[in-house]
Amino acid sequence: MHSKKTLGLAATAALRVTASSLANVCTTSYIQSALPLDAVSGITLDSNSITANAVYNYTSEAGDLWIGGKGLDFCNVTLAYTRNGLSNSTTNLWYWLPSPEQWQGRYLTTGGGGFSITSGEAGLANGIVYGSVAGTTDGGFGSWSNELSDVILAANGTMDFDMLYNFGYRSIHEMSVIGKEVSKNFYNASSLYSYYQGCSEGGREGWSQVQRYGSQFDGAAIGAPAFRQAFQQVAHLAAAVVEQTHDYYPPPCELEKINNDTIAACDKLDGREDGVVARTDLCKLHYNANASIGQPYSCAAVAATSGYTKRQMAQAAEPAANGTVSAKAAAVANDLWKGLFDSKGRQIYVSYQPGADFEDAETTYNSATGQYEATVSGIGVQWVNYFLKEIISTELSIKNVTYDTLRSWILEGMQKYDSVMQTTWPDLEDFHNAGGKVIHFHGESDNSIPTASSVIYHDAVRKIMYPNMGLNESYSALQDWYRLFLVPGAAHCSPSTDQPNGPFPQNVLQSVIDWVENGVVPERLNATVLDGTTSDVDQKICTFPLRPMWKDNATMDCVFDKASYDSWVPELDSIPVPVY
Ligand SMILES: *[C@@H]1O[C@H](CO)[C@@H](O)[C@H](O)[C@H]1NC(C)=O
Ligand SMILES: *[C@@H]1O[C@H](CO)[C@@H](O)[C@H](O)[C@H]1NC(C)=O
Ligand SMILES: *[C@@H]1O[C@H](CO)[C@@H](O)[C@H](O)[C@H]1NC(C)=O
Ligand SMILES: *[C@@H]1O[C@H](CO)[C@@H](O)[C@H](O)[C@H]1NC(C)=O
Ligand SMILES: *[C@@H]1O[C@H](CO)[C@@H](O)[C@H](O)[C@H]1NC(C)=O
Ligand SMILES: *[C@@H]1O[C@H](CO)[C@@H](O)[C@H](O)[C@H]1NC(C)=O
Ligand SMILES: *[C@@H]1O[C@H](CO)[C@@H](O)[C@H](O)[C@H]1NC(C)=O
Ligand SMILES: *[C@@H]1O[C@H](CO)[C@@H](O)[C@H](O)[C@H]1NC(C)=O
Ligand SMILES: *[C@@H]1O[C@H](CO)[C@@H](O)[C@H](O)[C@H]1NC(C)=O
Ligand SMILES: *[C@@H]1O[C@H](CO)[C@@H](O)[C@H](O)[C@H]1NC(C)=O
Ligand SMILES: *[C@@H]1O[C@H](CO)[C@@H](O)[C@H](O)[C@H]1NC(C)=O
Ligand SMILES: *[C@@H]1O[C@H](CO)[C@@H](O)[C@H](O)[C@H]1NC(C)=O
Ligand SMILES: [Ca+2]
Known about the structure:
Layout (H helix, E strand, L loop, with lengths): L2 H11 L8 H4 L2 H7 L8 E18 L8 E15 L7 E8 L7 E5 L9 H10 L2 E6 L10 H4 L1 E3 L2 E2 L1 H27 L5 E7 L1 H12 L6 E5 L5 H7 L2 H9 L5 H15 L13 H7 L9 E4 L5 E5 L3 E3 L5 E4 L2 H12 L1 E2 L5 E3 L14 E3 L4 E3 L4 H12 L13 H20 L6 H5 L3 E7 L7 H15 L5 H8 L3 E6 L15 E2 L3 H11 L5 E6 L8 E5 L4 E5 L3 E5 L2 H7 L12
Parallel strand pairs: 4-5, 4-8, 8-9, 9-18, 18-19
Antiparallel strand pairs: 1-2, 2-3, 3-5, 6-7, 10-13, 11-12, 14-15, 16-17, 20-21, 21-22, 23-24
Helix pairs in contact: 1-3, 3-6, 8-13, 8-14, 9-12, 11-19
The structure holds 2-acetamido-2-deoxy-beta-D-glucopyranose (NAG) (12 copies) and calcium ion.
């Protein structure tokens, strides 16, 4: 299988001069010699497509999910491959390979967000900070900026299954296999450590690999994964249906007030008053929005923006609002927290935790009628139109749509996409047997992917892999290699502006590396307060199912309580098959 690679190296060896400098190895001919031509079957790597340029003294800017670094030297490589027997099937790959001096024996695959399969240079830049090669792919979508939704339908009714499967798991896999082999050949290394990092859709992409290719990565840092897509995207539409069902369309200011009151009231349930709801489970069990009824609210006018809100909807202008919180608004909020139930009272899915802002529920002001109207989430509409109805349209009327309609859309999505987009295969035996380690984290105030969505999967893996063990024993077995951390006060793949004193695990990949390479078990995950005012900047996060509880407002314990635990994993008895 590797004979061509060996031949390639031998054939070009005579052309090479001293190996150590970046300039010597960052050439198209050297990259050509490093190409693993037979590593992936069914494709043809195009040696002539290679571009390579050396970059020196690069600064990688820190972000919420990136630590950043300076003085980075690397080789910027792009290349393409085609799928044998298919026309117009070019997939583009992009790798950043640290200089031989800066390489620390690591390879990293990075992922995207929304319906985008790549984070481009931002992801690559974070990888090289760790002395790691970093790779990304355009998924074969024809351009680095195209998303799956741009290409999934060739026409109304014509799904492009190649694009779908490329996005589902195939392209990331191919890019990872090629990237690992290119790296070994590039540095003349017999082995390396391989990692994955991504959040949101990038988190789903990480699971798509860990679930299928057990030995592909030694470690994975996975945030708030957008998996269980059949539920996840339809659930984005639930808030608008809740408002329609109540026939009440709260001004955004009214829900914002309820959220502010919720954070203020639930802050102390974790034993420390710091503006952070570290126990949204206790908040869910003991608080309800009726406490806000009659409370005054007011907000300044908001100008229309072309920016994005609510996952791809433009922001309409809103007039200044004031009033007092109504019983109807409280009822809407209570239903938004409760989760999705069908007309028979059976639970369909979970929702966001109290303390997460009500982004999906944000109404739009209609200046012609002077009324607020329900607005459906852009990504939820894309799912129903592109993936279920198979029409190229961004319009979806929710008139007549009920909780039962949402349920039927979820079941349809499960049937149609179980093998490609659901990404919740719960048996991780191959990954575990290969010695893999995964740190999975999720903001406890995530407003886009329910925090409980991650808990449900983690719990499913525990039950599938350790069916004969009790709760403590099975969690302890699972924690040897797969740990889930719920991040207090954090929003979707970022800190929350509503709870600025919350810690965030900005350097989670380092924790994965330490676990894989040095056996340092992340008993509690390192996190840093990035935006707040607290003096206690470096904090730790409890491993689920243990939950934080502060003593004397000063020391954090990680405790177990059954009622809280149960609140994370309700029985989804409206769904006739197991939900992993
Ligand atoms: C790998 O080995 C080849 C052949 O000896 C050499 O030309 C090349 O510079 C080496 N690469 C690195 C990164 O040391
Ligand atoms: C590297 O970049 C920094 C700015 O980030 C600059 O101050 C420094 O002079 C540069 N070093 C070299 C060797 O170019
Ligand atoms: C990397 O290469 C691509 C393709 O040639 C180019 O568009 C991009 O600007 C390069 N990036 C850097 C940092 O050199
Ligand atoms: C392939 O791409 C070419 C050039 O972009 C285009 O003209 C042609 O229609 C495409 N063929 C198919 C089958 O998509
Ligand atoms: C909610 O709290 C934030 C932060 O304190 C504040 O800026 C905002 O005005 C409050 N909103 C309402 C509706 O009270
Ligand atoms: C509790 O601790 C937080 C964070 O250190 C601090 O901001 C707050 O003032 C403390 N509250 C009380 C009641 O001591
Ligand atoms: C909230 O108050 C309404 C009356 O306005 C009542 O019907 C409802 O049961 C209350 N909800 C909760 C959760 O207490
Ligand atoms: C609420 O609106 C009324 C009427 O528009 C206005 O007189 C009042 O000043 C506003 N109150 C606040 C707190 O903005
Ligand atoms: C695709 O279907 C949508 C929804 O029915 C329709 O609005 C659109 O015009 C159709 N496009 C084409 C090219 O037929
Ligand atoms: C809603 O249902 C009514 C009655 O069945 C029907 O007339 C109407 O066309 C439906 N509206 C939409 C948007 O589907
Ligand atoms: C499980 O462990 C927790 C502490 O980690 C303890 O409080 C609890 O009692 C244990 N439960 C069982 C069933 O052993
Ligand atoms: C975590 O924080 C501790 C200090 O509390 C530090 O010693 C350790 O290096 C950090 N680990 C990682 C992976 O950042
Ligand atoms: Ca608190």
